[in-house]
Amino acid sequence: MSTKFYVIAVWTLLSFVVKVNAQDKVECWDRFELSFKQVTKGNPFDIRLSATFVCGKEKKTVEGFYDGENTYRIRFMPAVAGEWRYVTSSSIGAMNGRKGTFTVIPAGKDNHGMVLVDGEHNFKYADGTRYYPMGTTAYA
Question: Where do the DUF5060 domain residues begin and end (predicted)?
């Protein structure tokens, strides 16, 4: 067999290899990220990618995105401490059906979570702590 055949065969096999990076432990309200290295043909923005995250009764599905340089990412902010499981769904077979687990630990003292609306004119963090927005421009 020719060298050209072997080069094409190796290139084809490598195009199906997906490297997945993920953390093992994350705080509540912090970012958990899955990262996939995948070479694709055509427009990389046309690839469909998502993951479903489950912890007890909590279930969230999050869409992924193309981040350039053959990298796809899924970012998720868990709001409940515990053992989380995930499974991916993708239009690319090598990124489809990837499973894993990670642990979410309680938030640290300076991590109050996302900002939420509290009534009509106030804001609060997810843990109930009052949030006071500050700005330098008033739009009236």
Answer: 25-90
Options 2.60.40.10, 3.40.630.30, 1.20.1440.130, 1.10.287.1770; CATH for 3-108 is 2.60.40.10
Q: Which two tokens stand for residue 125?
A: 């963090």
| pTM score of the predicted model | 0.76
pLDDT, one tens digit per residue, over 57-91 is 999 999 999 999 999 999 999 999 999 999 999 99
Query: CA-CA distance, 96 to 22, in Å (whole number)?
Result: 16
Cα of 98 vs its chain's centroid, Å: 13
